[in-house]
From TrEMBL:
Residues annotated as domain Toprim: 3-127
Keyword Isomerase: yes
Keyword field: Isomerase
GO molecular function per UniProt: DNA binding; DNA topoisomerase type I (single strand cut, ATP-independent) activity
InterPro entries per the UniProt record, alphabetical: Topo_IA, Topo_IA_2, Topo_IA_cen, Topo_IA_cen_sub1, Topo_IA_cen_sub2, Topo_IA_cen_sub3, Topo_IA_core_domain, TOPRIM_dom
GO BP, one annotated term: DNA recombination
Name used for this protein in its record: Omega-protein
Superkingdom of source: Bacteria
Topo IA-type catalytic domain: residues covered: 142-484
Annotated signal sequence range: none
Length: 484
């Protein structure tokens, strides 16, 4: 029997590891996710078999037992037999908290006392896997990660089962079935229910807005009166209209430069949120496609998708030129100019920030530097959804002239009407949804060169009228007094 073994998290992972290292580190044996389940409460304390509203917390931790289903029994047997003679174990499961638990719980259950090395890789191509084995560290370095995984699992067992039994016994009297309570499901349902109640209890209230159409030499544009609170009385809005009717005077125009840093690379939540809004994908679909790009046969073009943070380690700075060059070979990014030497942005506001990775198992998801040169060959094999997701991931490492490093400067434009000769008139206007104040420094967000004409000199309102009421946000209904 071999004196070394490698344990992976799943069969596809074992296949990639074998292709990368052969038998250099011993026989490669796959798990099948969690090979152990926690004991049930009645297995720990027989008196807990009867459901009562009590806290199901044993004196020690809940023990484990072999899981059932799939091919778990056969895979566990193969690993158990290999552990009897193995002097060293290489844990090559996923590089997150759950991956640490999946591998180490096997060793803890069988009380393995040999040497254990931890292999962490954020991509599953051959080169990355080989480098990860070369950089393997003692598994004891990840004791806190394993402890966190155990604590999460034990807490779920204790509180989920305790609250489920309590809710079923107390709230479900006379009803059939179990009232399930879970750490994720219950608060999610609470959010949905709360929003549903808000919709059911919605009572529309009419409010008024004033829109002025300013006539200038180059054409016309609209300005909206924006008081601090909504106007609910018609007489107030009519007084505003009367104050600005027939106004003719200069519009102040000021152009200011504004610096805007590039977006950070994605973590999994931000990636799922963007794909939901852009493509209408469920979170599970985004993760499924990302997983396929990560470990799919003949793909492996992104790093580990279950990213927890939106930062990259500073050790990856040297990979930037290669990633940029690889992306430029594709059609999507070939026409975007980049500087000869990218200016790397470090620190909290940048992309490379080692402190931002403290406590995280893996960095933001980015294109895989070790397979980027093969992207042109891989691209035709990708589905349309896979191409969309890769472009989203690559787009956040690609700046306007290198998004990973550049800071964009945008001209911001402010237009302001001077109503000082009419103290009762509006002192705040909104242009294209952006608020402008007569006094002080107005917010500049979303004000661009498209917001107004380049040469605005005078404006002359015409007449006024009333548009039909229109329901807007919950709690309000809008009626517009329009000044033309």
């Amino acid at each position: 029997m071999a004196d070394q073994i490698v344990i992976t998290e799943k069969t596809s992972q074992a296949k990639d590891v074998r292709a990368a290292i052969g038998s250099r580190y011993g026989v490669v044996l796959p798990a099948e996710g969690h090979l152990f389940d926690l004991l049930e409460p009645q297995d720990v304390v027989p008196g807990w078999k009867r459901w009562t509203p009590i806290l199901l917390r044993p004196q020690e931790l809940y023990g484990t037992r072999p899981a059932k289903g799939g091919n778990k029994a056969a895979k566990l047997k193969a690993i158990r037999e290999a552990l009897r003679t193995a002097k060293r174990v290489w844990l090559a499961t996923d590089c997150d908290r759950e991956g640490q638990l999946i591998g180490q719980e096997i060793l803890e259950h069988y009380k393995y006392r040999g040497e254990v090395m931890r292999v962490l890789f954020t991509a599953q191509d051959t080169q990355t896997i080989r480098q990860s084995f070369d950089r393997a560290k003692p598994n004891s370095d990840y004791a806190r990660l394993y402890a966190a995984a155990v604590a999460r699992r034990q807490a779920d067992q204790i509180y989920n089962l305790s609250l489920t039994r309590t809710a079923t016994v107390i709230l479900g009297k006379g009803a059939r079935g179990v009232i399930g309570v879970g750490r994720v499901k219950t608060p999610t349902l609470a959010i949905v229910c709360r929003r549903e109640l808000e919709i059911r209890n919605f009572v529309p209230v009419t409010y008024f807005e004033v829109v002025a159409t300013a006539m200038v030499e180059g054409g016309e544009f609209k300005m909206r009166y924006a008081p601090r609170e909504r106007i609910l009385k018609r007489e107030i809005v009519e007084s505003v209209v009367a104050a600005i009717r027939d106004f003719e005077g200069p519009l102040g125009v000021r152009v200011e430069g504004k610096r805007q840093g590039p977006p950070k690379p994605h973590d999994l939540p931000s990636l799922q949120k963007l794909c939901a809004s852009r493509f209408g994908w469920a979170a599970a679909k985004t993760l499924e496609i990302a997983q396929e790009l990560y470990d799919g046969q003949g793909k492996k073009i992104i790093t580990y998708p279950r990213a927890e943070v939106r930062y990259l380690p500073e050790t990856l700075i040297g990979d930037v030129p290669k990633i940029v060059a690889g992306l430029q070979a594709g059609r999507s990014f070939s026409t975007i100019p980049v500087p000869a030497v990218p200016v790397i942005r470090k620190g909290k506001s940048g992309s490379f920030y080692d402190k931002g990775l403290e406590g995280a198992s893996h960095h933001a998801v980015i294109p895989n530097v070790n397979t980027i040169e093969k992207l042109r060959d891989v691209w035709p094999r990708l589905s349309s959804d896979e191409k969309k997701l890769f472009d989203v991931i690559a787009g956040h490492i690609w700046p306007p002239s290198c998004r990973i490093s550049a800071t964009a400067r945008q001209p911001q434009r402010l237009i302001r009407a001077d109503f000082r000769s009419r103290p009762q008139a509006a002192n705040t206007l909104i242009l294209d949804g952006v608020q402008h104040s007569r006094n002080g420094n107005p917010p500049m967000k979303k004000v661009t060169m498209r917001s107004c004409f380049l040469r605005c000199k005078t404006a002359k309102p015409r007449d006024c009228g009333t548009l039909p009421s229109k329901t807007r946000k919950p709690g309000h209904r809008r009626a517009i007094m329009k000044v033309l």
